[in-house]
Input
Amino acid sequence: MRRLDERPRGGCPIPAVGWRSALGDPRRLGDWLAFFDREVTEQPWRAVLEVWWPRLVPGIAAGATHGVIRTGHAVHALLAHEDGPRLAELGQALGYWAARWQQVPSAAPSGTSGPASALAGVPRIADQSADIDHRLGQLTGLSGWPAALAALRPAADAGQARDLLAGLTTAAAVRYLPNAHGSPVMLIHSATAPMAVLRTLPALPSTQWVVSLHAAWAASAAVTAAYAPAAPLPRHALPTAHRSAEETFALAVRHQDEHVIKLADTCLDVHRRTGCPDALAAVTRAIELIDEP
Output
């Protein structure tokens, strides 16, 4: 809470019709926050999400994927218990996402690769010397980018979309361990963004699950292309999981960095589903590389 900025004020209300011109305009953040405050107050939150998710998810790169990540945490919390503060957080998450809305070049999966193989085949951008906007801007001209996105096998139905999304989250979390030195903070989003989408699925109509998979895959691949190192480190040079899941999460909380905590949250979910020890080792690696705030 001590690290939060003061909430910006709106100056020009966003109408229910004609909102598109304000989408992706960070100068309208205060207006978007006020807009979604009203939306989640005047309507059931699931109805708001059903309308706005398909409008926002094409711009999943918003704020280095923080828009969808924040929304996913808010939805996950509301599914467990609905109250005023959680509704307010969902409104602010959607408002932030709308103000920072940003697309990445995408292509629908049509290949035969599973998530791990598809992620391993993502090419790296040439210039990794600047911020994320500069890096994502290179995807349009990146040789092999459309083919890499298409390599993932498609989902025939909502159930397959959920399973592929879970597999993508697992692959990205485990892949963080040998590749984190490329960018310890930014590569975390390759796992936490698809996890946010996965946790939102239960609150969405199943008709929106496949397109949600496509967006999450594009986001995870884009972060990988933008920040992956030239080569992964060998396994013998990396930490192993010698603590329990609970002890690992406690270490992340004591570290206090929000990215470490978000990665730990994702990796514990992966570990519960798969039992993969490298999911916990990835958290240890993040703690090693990221300075405490």
About this structure: The chain has a mean pLDDT of 96. The CA atoms of residues 46 and 203 lie 6 Å apart. The longest helix spans residues 158-179.
